[in-house]
Design goal:
Blueprint lengths: L1 E9 L3 H12 L4 E4 L26 H14 L3 E3 L3 E5 L6 E5 L3 E9 L3 E3 L15 E2 L2 H4 L7 E5 L3 H10 L5 E5 L9 H9 L3 E4 L2 E8 L6 E8 L5 E5 L2 E4 L3 E3 L29 E3 L11 H47 L1
Parallel strand pairs: 1-2, 1-6, 2-3, 6-17, 8-15, 9-10, 9-15, 10-11
Antiparallel strand pairs: 4-5, 5-6, 7-16, 12-13, 13-14
Helix pairs in contact: 1-2, 1-6, 4-5
Length: about 325
């Protein structure tokens, strides 16, 4: 079954939900293809304390539900499915296929995001949002006077570890190698910080939780050289081993950088006319719900403008085609 709509939004994080609000409010038929989970990464955050308008904070799932309800109020529809294939090669209307149906969309807003790389160890999924986090800026405040672990050895890991010392009593960086990969400047800053300690040649084999609190209580560590296993009491685990943009589904039809992030210009335009992008599918710097929402808004506004200009162009062409036979007939009559 093929459904024709004006706008398809691929992804349902803050960028996608905001984009849908704006395009639906502009009275453009809009479908949001949600992916695995409505809300994206923000929906897995137990407490969101830095989204404007909520002075007492708000749980991630509730924020997501409110944003979805606002978009639905103006007519946005939600398809709880995964995009399996797109065809942007022939221009608008674009073909977007899911597991169960196909859409023809005059414009597409890509907000499919990026996924933090996981440790894939027992306890990681169970305690995400309850001691396991992938965002220091989002969750650091909740670990005031706590002892936490940061996993990773690159720039992101050290940057976030330094940031977390504003809140935590101690930050232990666990790295699987014997040397860090971060820049020399960041290493100097981390080494000079009295709150930061290091455990090298070590990985986390399991994240352990408390049956009483339902939160992280410890990690099981393993030295990769000696094989020695130990248990370390801890209040939180922050994982910074990289992100993977979810751009593979576009199969090279959208221009990306070497890491796979979709390239956009200052107006959120991709290399395909009529396809726009916002949020972490192109943003590998800020990674915040509020910046993603702003980028989703900008992408939607550009899509609205593009559709309006395209409609005007098509109307001009239609008028010219309609008037052409009349002009030809008139000339013929005059000649006779």
């Amino acid at each position: 079954m093929v459904k024709k709509v004006r706008v398809v939004v691929i992804g349902s994080g803050p960028a996608g939900l905001t984009a849908a609000l704006y395009t639906a409010r502009a009275q453009l038929s809009t479908v949001v293809i949600t992916g695995m989970q409505v809300g994206g990464q923000i929906a897995t955050t137990h407490d969101v304390d830095n989204f404007p308008g909520f002075p007492d904070g708000i749980e991630g799932p509730e924020l997501t539900a409110r944003m979805q309800a606002q978009a639905e109020r103006f007519g946005a529809q939600f398809d709880y499915d995964l995009v399996t294939e797109v065809d942007f090669t022939s221009g608008s209307p674009f073909r977007v296929k899911t597991q169960s149906r196909e859409y023809l969309a005059d414009s597409v807003v890509v907000t499919i995001g990026a996924s933090p790389r996981k440790l894939n160890v027992p306890g990681e999924v169970e305690f995400t949002g309850r001691g396991v986090s992938y965002c220091a800026t989002c969750d650091g405040w909740f670990f005031r006077n706590k002892d936490i672990i940061v996993v990773g050895g690159g720039d992101s890991a050290l940057q976030e570890a330094i940031f977390l010392t504003r809140f935590a009593s101690s930050v232990t960086i666990v790295h699987r190698r014997d040397t860090l990969r971060a820049s020399t400047a960041l290493q100097h800053r981390a080494f000079a910080n009295d709150k930061i300690g290091f455990i090298y040649n070590t990985v986390i084999d399991e994240i352990l939780g408390s049956s009483e609190t339902g939160a992280v209580r410890a990690v099981r560590l393993r030295n990769v050289k000696t094989g020695e296993v130990s248990e370390k009491p801890i209040d939180g685990v922050f994982i910074f081993i990289g992100y993977d943009p979810n751009s593979k589904v576009f199969n090279g039809q959208l221009s990306t950088d070497a890491a796979g992030y979709v390239i956009v210009d200052n107006h959120m335009r991709t290399n395909v006319e009529g396809v726009f992008a916002g949020g972490e599918i192109h943003d590998d710097i800020f990674r915040q719900a509020i910046t993603a929402a702003g980028q989703g808004c900008a992408a939607a506004l550009m899509a609205i403008n593009w559709l309006g200009e395209r409609a005007d162009r098509l109307q001009v062409i239609e008028d010219e085609q309609r008037d052409a036979p009349i002009a030809s007939s008139k000339k013929t009559t005059e000649a006779v």
